[in-house]
Design a protein that fits this description.
The protein contains two helices and 44 strands. The chain has 614 residues and is mainly beta. Among the domains are: 111 residues, Immunoglobulin-like, CATH 2.60.40; 109 residues, Immunoglobulin-like. The protein has a seven-stranded antiparallel sheet with strand order 22-23-24-25-26-27-28, with no helix packed on it. Strand 13 and strand 14 form a beta hairpin. The longest helix has 24 residues. The chain starts with a helix and ends with a strand.
Length: 614
């Protein structure tokens, strides 16, 4: 019996020792102030369903989510709290759920694949469970770590049903036209998708997006009303971006797109005004930046930037044109009084050429002169000097051709002033460009370099509107506002107001201005091109009621004899408005040559027209 009792005692002691070791291995068994209150006296332990989560998604899918079950072994009789720490490369956050006393689940939310680039985003989630709200007293097994691997790749592919839009509008129609571009994904985007457009606004007013489905949207391109558009062909460019979200973190494959739009706006003849009759009309195969008439050769001299920088001499008797390339883009042209040489103004340079050799093989290179500004207007005086009136400076320059020496002229000539050589060859008169108190100013060039003399006595009482022309004898100055002045060598009589030419009435304050003028003694005639300056120059994009007139006056009486609308031209079946640019009298037969520009021609080589008028 004793041996058996001792054995039993030994067995009991062995059992207690083994149980104590087991409790110690499980983290329990001591009085550490963290009694879990379990029925058996053991400590609570956190267990997570998995320590690794792998997820994959394509842009266009909904954002994925994942849940992990949390298990509390030996749950206590008190409330346990959960705390979470995590990185946020591919996930937005983690939410834990509980049954009131114990946390039971962790919900992991992922970023939308449409906001991420292709790749694998590795995050780590640490879940803590403790007896206090800050989880400073944690149970066994806490914290638990979950590694997350989120792979984003692939996505939808987008297409559009057209990359060009062309509409036809009437220049007198108040109703806007529209057209639609359809956007289609190859499969639905579960969260939808966004369309973002950017476009120029020459003819396009705005765009409106219409939702069709999760795979289709329509872009309604709304054009401006016909009566708010310039006539002719008006082009715009639209960029369309297709994104999974409006913030465009990621575009759908195939985006962006470029769509070219074109509005063909039909012009109408000016109501109540007879179209200009003409004997013949030809298309000039180049643009016209500036032009003068060479009376000695009875030829038009024009400078051009398209299709190339060049000077052209057009023989009005034969209709033949010869040309020569220029070293830089031209800004202005002037012809010497003897008609033998011409000067072309550029930016910081002037080219001087022999007119007779233009177009000939082996012709000498132009003489290139240097100065420090841009030649908005120039005067070639025939005495070895070119006088330059800059675009952005107050002081003009006199350049001696033989020495290529530029001398600034102390004269308060306004920037962008137009200047003319007086027929006597001793003076230059300039007209201020549309400034308050615009005036006429006079310079003396009899000694070579120009010197300032004086301006008119009116200090802007009679507007000159930025340009002027002389009668053939030089005794009369005509200005772009229609005001007329006397020219005289006597300062007391010089630039005295002598009346005005009657121009067309305007409903706008600025009124009609003269764009070009030619006076002929032989025909006792003044011919001029007039335009409503507000409708043609200030109305956005030439979209206003801009009409050009060829008006004829008696030179002696100044009576307005007649006015014609410069008229329409037809290009590829569409009528285009034409703006008169220059008018010149023939040196021999009294005919007039009118250079016009088709507004918004679709072809740069069908933009400028030369009309011969009886």
């Amino acid at each position: 019996m004793f041996r058996a009792h001792r054995q039993a005692g030994s067995l009991a002691r062995g059992f207690v020792l083994a149980w104590a070791m087991l409790l110690q291995a499980c983290g329990g068994g001591g009085d550490d102030g963290n009694d879990d209150g379990g029925e058996s006296g053991s400590r609570a332990r956190l267990s997570v369903e998995t320590a690794n989560i792998t997820v994959a998604a394509e842009p266009g899918d909904n954002a994925p989510s994942s849940s992990v079950r949390l298990t509390i072994l030996n749950p206590p009789k008190v409330t346990l709290y959960s705390c979470v720490e995590n990185s946020t490369l591919g996930i937005t956050g983690v939410t834990t759920l509980s049954n009131g006393l114990l946390p039971t689940q962790a919900l992991i939310s992922f970023r939308s694949p449409g906001r991420l680039s292709d790749g694998t985003y590795n995050d780590q989630v640490e879940i803590q469970v403790g007896t206090d709200t800050d989880c400073t007293e944690q149970i066994d097994g806490s914290p638990a770590t979950i590694d997350i691997h989120y792979t984003v790749s692939g996505g939808r592919v987008v297409s559009i049903d057209r990359d060009t839009i062309s509409i036809e509008a009437d220049g007198q129609d108040p109703a806007p036209k529209s057209a639609t571009v359809r956007v289609t994904l190859d499969e639905i985007a579960e969260g939808g998708f966004s369309v973002v457009t950017e476009q120029t606004a020459n003819a396009v007013s705005h765009t409106t997006i219409h939702h069709i489905s999760q795979a289709q949207q329509d872009i309604e391109v709304v054009f401006k009303a016909g009566d708010a558009l310039p006539t002719g062909v008006v082009d715009d460019t639209m960029t369309i971006r297709i994104c999974y979200f409006s913030t465009c973190e990621r575009e759908v494959e195939g985006s962006p797109f470029t769509v070219s739009t074109q509005a063909k706006v039909k012009a109408h003849a000016e109501p109540g005004v007879t179209p200009m009759p003409y004997l013949s009309r030809v298309i000039l195969p180049h643009d016209v930046v500036d032009a003068e008439f060479d009376k000695a050769a009875n030829a038009l001299v024009m400078v051009s930037r398209a299709p190339s920088d060049a000077i052209y001499v057009y023989d009005v008797a034969t209709g033949l044109e010869r040309s020569r390339l220029l070293p830089q883009p031209p800004m202005s042209v002037s012809i010497a009084p003897d008609g033998l040489t011409t000067a072309v103004g550029h930016d910081a340079h002037v080219s001087v050429l022999d007119l007779a050799t233009i177009g000939q093989a082996g012709a000498p290179d132009p003489t290139l002169l240097d100065f420090s500004s841009d030649a908005f207007d120039i005067v070639l005086d025939g005495n070895g000097f070119v006088h330059v009136f800059p675009e952005d400076e107050l002081l003009p320059y006199s350049i001696e051709i033989a020495t290529n020496t530029a001398t600034s002229v102390f004269s308060l000539v306004r920037p962008r002033a137009r200047a003319r050589l007086h027929p006597a060859g001793q003076w230059i008169y300039s007209a201020d460009y549309h400034v308050p108190a615009s005036d006429i100013r006079k310079l003396d060039i009899s000694s070579g370099n120009a010197t300032a003399l004086y301006d008119s006595p009116y200090d802007g009482n009679f507007d000159v509107c930025g340009n002027l022309w002389f009668s053939e004898d030089g005794g009369t100055i005509y200005t772009a506002c229609g005001n007329i002045f006397i020219s005289s060598a006597d300062q007391a009589q010089d630039m005295i107001h002598a009346g005005a030419l009657e121009l067309s009435p305007s409903e706008y304050e600025i009124g009609w201005n003269i764009r070009s003028l030619s006076a002929s003694d032989a025909d006792d005639e003044i011919a001029l091109i007039e335009e409503d300056r507000y409708a043609c120059d200030f109305w956005p994009g030439e979209a206003g009621p801009c009409y050009s007139h060829l008006a004829l006056y008696g030179k002696q009486s100044l009576d307005r004899l007649t006015a014609y609308s410069v008229g329409l031209v037809t290009i590829d079946g569409l009528d285009f408005a034409q703006r008169g640019q220059f008018v010149f009298h023939d040196a021999a037969n009294g005919r007039k040559y009118v250079i016009g520009r088709a507004v918004n021609s679709p072809d740069p080589l069908q933009s400028y027209y030369l009309s011969v008028v009886e």
